[in-house]
Fold:
Amino acid sequence: MAAILASGSVNSLKTLWETKIQKIQDNREKQRRRPRSRLGAAAGVWEERHTLARLRDKLKTQDGRLILRLEHEEWKALPGCLVRLSQIQEWHIHRTGLQKIPNFVSCFRDLLVLDLSRNGVKEIPKEIGGLKRLRELLLSYNRVLFVPEELGDCESLERLELAMNRDLDQLPDKLSQLRRLDRLDLSMNAFGAVPPCLLHMPALEWLDMAGNRLRALPRDIHRMEKLHTLWLQRNQLEKVPENISRMPRLDTLVLSSNRLTDIPPVMEDMVNLRFVNFRDNPLALEMATTDDGDDREMFGREFMLTYIREARKRAHAALNVHALSHA
Structure:
């Protein structure tokens, strides 16, 4: 009996001793990790301060605005500490490899210009809708595939540039709420049709849709009442709708490098149309003779008027031939 008790006492002491040793080892491990943790936190704080200092060095004041300029530096992502500089009114970030507009962009309530041209941005965050004072959004030469409808909440937006995003092919209908937008660049993308929302932008004056895949223009194109400049070169347009003649302010129309085979006669009455280009279209009339006998290439307004007159002569001659054949 005494032997059994002695054995039990030894086992208990052994267990207590092992537990004590384990606690000592655990405490040593904690002590060893604690300095590293503190060093890591300190390093993080130092890195954030260093990054913030770098950003502050890029700040400039111009015309009373605080502007951030980053160019030819590697900033694939913008650090969260940038929020501390939320008073910035303009971002000009070019050729940095930036891949994403941060969600915290909505914290910059006073932002007027967001220029991120020539980067690698793939999407526009929904938070962009919180920028009520934003006037210019410039995202040309990026990789944007999708435009969120929340962009329509940017009620002060006047200029939107999305050129050369290549695969971008549609815009949300809600962008028709951009009542102040007067300049829109959608060139060199994949649009197969003019987005319907454009016809309901009351302030739109300048539109570039060159280098897309347009096959036709909307019949009610005349709804863009304030439009004065329209760039449509390098598309696949086969005709021009007659209602284009009902655009009283249109003075510049570029239709070169399309598939046009005719010009609507009603365009002759567009007295405000100052510049038009029909170069590189399969139109019948390519050359005209001036009063002094010199052959001269024409592709502008003079060409348009000459083509319409010649087309009317051909139609009149054909009508006479038809009438004589049935006399």
In short: The first helix runs from residue 2 to 57.
